[in-house]
Amino acid sequence: YRLNETHMTASIWVLGEALMDCVAQPDGTLRPFMGGSPFNMARAAALRGATVGYVNPLSTDQFGQGMHQQLVQDGVIPLSAPSALPTSLAVVQIHNGQPSYGFYREGIADRDYSADAVLQRLQGQAPGVLHTGSLLLVPPEHHKVLDILKGAKSLGWTISIDVNLRPRLAADLGQYVRAVQEIAEHADWLKASDEDLELLGFPHATRANGAAIAANFMAHGTSRVALTFGAQGAWLGVEGNSADADVPATQVVDTVGAGDTFWGNCLGDWVLNPEDAHQRVAQTLHQAMRAAAINCERAGCQPPRYAEVLAAA
Fold first, then answer.
1. Which tens digits make up the pLDDT trace of 198-212?
2. Closest Cα to residue 264, out of 48, 79, 84, 82?
3. pLDDT higher than threshold 60 for residue 1
4. Are strands 52-54 and 12-14 parallel, antiparallel or unpaired?
5. Where are the alpha helices (DSSP H) in the chain?
6. How many other C-beta atoms can be found within 10 angstroms of the C-beta atom of residue 205?
7. What is the pLDDT of residues 218-235, one digit of tens each?
8. Residue 232 gets which letter from DSSP?
């Protein structure tokens, strides 16, 4: 396929993994779903209406081709030539609706990129939002990501981070947490879940102390912080204004991709309506939570279009 370079002025560029979530079924078989937090987030933001580009290479294998088709179908622009390396896999066990993961991440397509090549691409673009997080923050991969973030920031890009810690993937959890903390210091906009916050050193993180937790990130210059607390709702702070909200009433099938859908809708809202984001914080939060709730009513990650979110309000 040809890459749509000439007309590419994406407002959001996404750097991160695209993998197949092989979900264990009751009969012991594995059912593959497209996944990877940044891949999901890219789709959610595009379905919200933003112009989104996906940076990492996808594999030439069958999974990679399917992912390429899915991105295009959802309106995301794949920005890299395909890689001959295979698609990464995650084996997912779901217990009481909550997923746990085992990862296969060596010698795979979405890590087949160089910091220099990505920075060169960023230089040729009008600055927008560069989003990353999740598995690319695991050492030693985080060194490449740090180089890209520092370069992107100097070019005027806004940095979005979804922490999305996966402790089982780290050979050394302490080293991994330190890497994430270092990367988080470069975030203009940041999302973290209650599980992330616990690993980052905030025990007993609750919605009630969202503002106090967010202040720790804002001390490093982060201006927009989303904190999600699973069934306990979420807290959102934008340039000094904040709101928190309960989870909408939902028939949960599973929670796969809920956080990605939530953050994709926040980013989409902010790039589409850049002027008064701090005055819309409650509305942004409400719509992002509604989008995540719709996603939870579907198997795997299937973010809604914006029209569906408005219809469900």
1. 999 998 899 999 999
2. 48
3. no
4. parallel
5. 37-48, 62-74, 115-123, 141-154, 173-184, 194-199, 210-218, 258-272, 281-296, 306-312
6. 23
7. 999 999 999 999 999 999
8. G
